[in-house]
Design brief:
CATH architecture of the largest domain: Orthogonal Bundle
Structural class: mainly alpha
Largest sheet: none
Low-confidence stretches: none
Distance between the termini: 7 Å
Radius of gyration: 18 Å
Number of strands: 0
Helix content: 55-70%
Mean pLDDT: 95
Strand content: under 5%
Number of domains: 2
Order of helices and strands: HHHHHHHHHHHH
Number of helices: 12
CATH class of the largest domain: Mainly Alpha
Length: about 200
């Protein structure tokens, strides 16, 4: 059966009333690097490796002076570490040379940085700059399709549909709630409809 916005919001609020971003960071730059590292990697793993990385360099200026080889051993367990190391160094250099050492606060500026796609830019904008954005990763994309909020055709369409479904002022909270809800009840693998409060309602 179709799920009402009120039901979904109440369910998300019941289980995860005050969600916080699962990545550890201290400022906009360290958030950017942490989000970049989280691609195809768990947030928990990122939080394990970033203390050593940020102890070595936690500003664009300091990071730009390093070589990928210097940071590769620190982030190796994150996967795709050679590409990520290369991008972290490159984006740090570009922040220094083109943005006066400050992480840009627009989609255009962020997406011009090496290794930064639309989802990463959305996370940085909504959490660091409080700019309205609804980050959609593969699992949020999956949940939106399961819940009948989008047709599942592609993440671009899913983002548009979720932005229509939830009021703009709720986007930051709702995307985090969907992340936590998915990990707890609506898993990518071994999804059991009977154990998911939302999917169970939709099927019923």
């Amino acid at each position: 059966m179709p799920l009402t916005p009120n039901f979904i919001k109440k369910t998300l609020d019941f289980y995860f009333p005050n969600p916080e971003i699962p990545l550890d960071y201290s400022d906009v730059y360290t958030l950017l690097v942490a989000v970049l590292l989280s691609a195809q990697c768990t947030d928990a793993r990122v939080n394990i490796v970033t203390p050593a990385l940020f102890a070595l360099a936690d500003t664009p200026e300091a990071m730009a002076k390093l070589t990928p080889k210097k940071i590769e051993p620190l982030i190796q367990s994150c996967g795709l570490y050679r590409t990520k190391a290369k991008n972290i160094i490159a984006l740090s250099k570009k922040i220094m040379s083109e943005f006066n050492g400050k992480v840009p606060n627009t989609f255009e500026g962020l997406e011009s940085l090496p290794g930064v796609g639309h989802k990463t830019a959305s996370v940085v904008l909504v959490h660091a700059f409080k700019t309205p954005a609804f980050p959609v990763d593969t699992h949020i994309h999956r949940l939106a399709a399961r819940w009948g909020l989008s047709d599942g055709s592609n993440v671009v369409q899913t983002e548009k549909d979720l932005k229509k479904f939830f009021p703009e002022k709720e986007w930051e909270k709702r995307h985090l709630q969907m992340i936590y809800f998915g990990r707890t009840f609506c898993k990518a693998r071994g999804h059991d409809i009977k154990e998911c409060p939302i999917c169970k309602k939709r099927q019923g």
